[in-house]
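Support request, please re-run this one:
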Amino acid sequence: MARLGKLHTARGIIDTPVFMPVGTQGTVKTFSPDEIEDIGARLILGNVYHLFMRPGMEIIKKAGGLHKFVNWKHSILTDSGGFQIFSLAKLRKITQDGVEFQSHIDGALHFFTPEKVMEIQGILGSDIIMPLDECLPYPCDYNYACNSIELTIKWLAQSVKFYKDKIGEKQALFGIAQGGVFPDLREKCISQMVEFDLPGYALGGLSVGEPPEKMQEILSLSTPKLPENKPRYLMGSGTPIDIVCSIENGIDLFDCVLPTRNARTGTAFTSKGRLTIRNSEYKEDFSPLDSGCECYTCKNFTRAYVRHLLNAEEILGLRLVSYHNIHFYVNLLTKIRQAIAKDKFQELKREILVKKW
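Re-run finished. Output below.
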């Protein structure tokens, strides 16, 4: 089911499959916007929960929206904050009307309704917006999951109404299907979701601890039930293996914090697999992180120097590995698109699967 597509947004056309660098708080960590642009990314992700917490909607509204505030002229997708609220399990309470949660910053109480999440994203002005949903944990009780998808669909209906009344088509609203790892609940949620005929659809509640093979099983059952002419977004995943297997199962959009998070622990993604650059074996290694890579880091610096920076806790070390990793992910998706176009996807998939990630 691997496929090529063109995703039309208010700020340009994006070739898919595509990876979105994660700019949670209005920045991809350690990057300036022009660096992200130079790497080739044209779609980044922002987070409703974190941007709502700080700097807050009043400041972003006065700035003229998120694009102007962060100086990014290309497309932005903002998620609903559902996953962040999910991660605050001890600090939130879910009701039929929305989610009450306690700020991780100052402990203040807030309440997100479906309409509130839409209103926030209207202020942000993001090109692709997501509705409030309940992200289920793994493992999850079947009966709870059954009730949860009813709540997610109810919230989607409220979001769609607000979207049509107050926002409009310049911002594309995607639906989110939940249902845990239960095939029948996934099918039920998807069948109700697609009735809203939205610009795109996301699969949420995966990459939350379930085995990778279980995630792919759910994807293989779910994507055939989604419209062929609409983009499919797998939220919050994943490793190169996750990505190539998910593309084989019909996914078009990806986001994940791994490239920058792993960089901060000294781990680089390379054409030969994962590289832990802090290790002593690279102390006198004067080759680049990845000999076949054309990124700024690999063209200018050695493993020995990057290792020195990381072990000396110099910020440049984090920047250089982060730059390389984001470049690797963006370039990986370019290679995958080229392989699909040349009917060589399976060959590339086999190359990725044998490496240690």
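The two ends are 24 Å apart (CA to CA). The domain at 5-256 is CATH 3.20.20.105 (TIM Barrel).
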